[in-house]
Amino acid sequence: MRRIEFIWKLPLLTLLPITMHAQQKVKLITLDPGHFHAALVQKTMYPEVDPNVYVYAEKGNDLQFHLDRIKGYNTRADQPTKWNEVVYEGKDFFQKMINERKGNVVVLAGNNKLKTSYILDAVQNGFNVFADKPMVINKEGFDQLKKAFEISKHKNLQLYDIMTERYEITTMLQRALSMETAVFGILEKGSPENPSVTKESVHHFYKYVSGSVLTRPSWFFDVTQEGEGIVDVTTHLVDLIQWECFPEKIIDYKKNVKILNAKSWNTTITPDDFKLVTKEKEIPAYLKGNIDKDGNLQVLCNGAFNYTINGVHAKVSVIWNYKAPDGTGDTHYSLMRGTKSSLIIRQGKEENYKPTLYVESEASKEIESALIAAINKINKTYPGVSIKKNTKGWEVIIPDVFKESHETHFARVTEKYLQYLQNNNMPSWEIPNMIAKYYTTTAARELANKTK
């Protein structure tokens, strides 16, 4: 065990909740960081957050990669950060965190096998929690999460997950236009064969983050630790369906959600590809059971399911490939079909692999006039947004100033969470909808595993 900075051991007086008060400094604790999202929370400085961040983890590559990323932010030429990472390394890191109580917000982004237990134990011991997705990867975890939310409510703690995709500009404008009934009409009910809402995303194991090739931990390829694809990235997609289709409405998972069908399937990773992206010399023993007869690793990271939410038919799909073709990257497709028009986000070759929002409808002066009026309203918040007519309707033209990167979205959602901490004003729909979201993903996983 080692410390990177000497810490006085304070006597443990109570285990009362570490609640926030106006103007009180937020003190972050980074617990067992294993995913690069843990570092992205700190890519930006925040006035209300103390620059000293307390890190608790076992010694190893996951921790070192995290510290290296923070160091990179601190030493970059453009707007360097000034974080001071106060590190405790040791197998008893969780208990040490509980005993020392150096911070008031636990940041969790790493191995998902223990994440839900960390969440529950943290709130039981009075800590606020800011957790990367997914909070849970199976039904057992879902039950734990429900308990964690009950405790956090009782102790007046803020438990929240990091939903960065709500801050992508095409998604925000898709949501805004869907609420303009003169343009969109109302959301169609759809059918299993023709859902009215579709969210699809394609991701890649080999990718660049903060300008460098991302090193994936070996456990990222073990679905018992990372979670199957159907409960991982789909968290974002289910969240967006709830957030866009039923804005600020409470979703009761027992009444409003029904899983219709689900499936999951593998991506093949060669030994050379595995070594390249993990920087490991060989595939670890715990993955040997997932190696096929040709010596390749099979990863159950793809998933798709159909379900209804408030009677609306929706489809979610996530695909993981090893590496994107040159000049491309992760992609997103989103359809919302209304009675007057469809709102579609595409990110293919025609869009130069940049997310682009379209309004598609039969030619109508009435729709066009309504769309112009809606865009004028949007311009009050996002000046310069305009439309361009095409053969199927209109393309929404968005100024570059609003096109922030996925990494920048972490600052946006963190700022929102800090607001909830300081003002205790998390909307009443957020918690029930987080619960509904994780019911949806874990129930889909259960069905996919039953129907293989």
Question: Topology of this protein?
Answer:
Elements: E1 2-3, E2 28-31, H1 37-40, E3 52-57, H2 61-75, E4 84-89, H3 93-100, E5 105-108, H4 115-124, E6 128-131, H5 139-154, E7 159-161, H6 169-178, H7 181-184, E8 197-206, E9 208-209, E10 212-213, H8 223-226, H9 234-245, H10 253-256, E11 257-269, H11 271-278, E12 297-309, E13 312-323, E14 331-337, E15 342-346, E16 356-360, H12 365-378, E17 386-389, E18 393-397, H13 406-423, H14 430-450
Parallel strand pairs: 2-3, 2-5, 3-4, 5-6, 6-7, 8-13
Antiparallel strand pairs: 1-4, 8-14, 9-10, 11-12, 12-13, 14-15, 15-16, 16-18, 17-18
Helix pairs in contact: 4-5, 5-14, 6-9, 9-14
Short description:
The protein has 452 residues and is of the alpha/beta class.
Structure annotation, total helices? 14
Beta fraction of the residues? 15-25%
Question: Can you say what the CATH homologous superfamily of the largest domain is?
Answer: Dihydrodipicolinate Reductase, domain 2
Approximate helicity band = 25-40%
CATH class term of the largest domain: Alpha Beta
Main sheet makeup: 9 strands, mixed
The counted number of beta strands is: 18
* Contiguous uncertain segments of 5+ residues: 1-16
Class of secondary structure makeup: alpha/beta
Strand order of the largest sheet: 11-12-13-8-14-15-16-18-17
Mean pLDDT: 93
End-to-end gap: 45 Å
* CATH fold assignment of the largest domain: Dihydrodipicolinate Reductase, domain 2
Number of domains: 2
The CATH architecture classification of the largest domain is: 2-Layer Sandwich
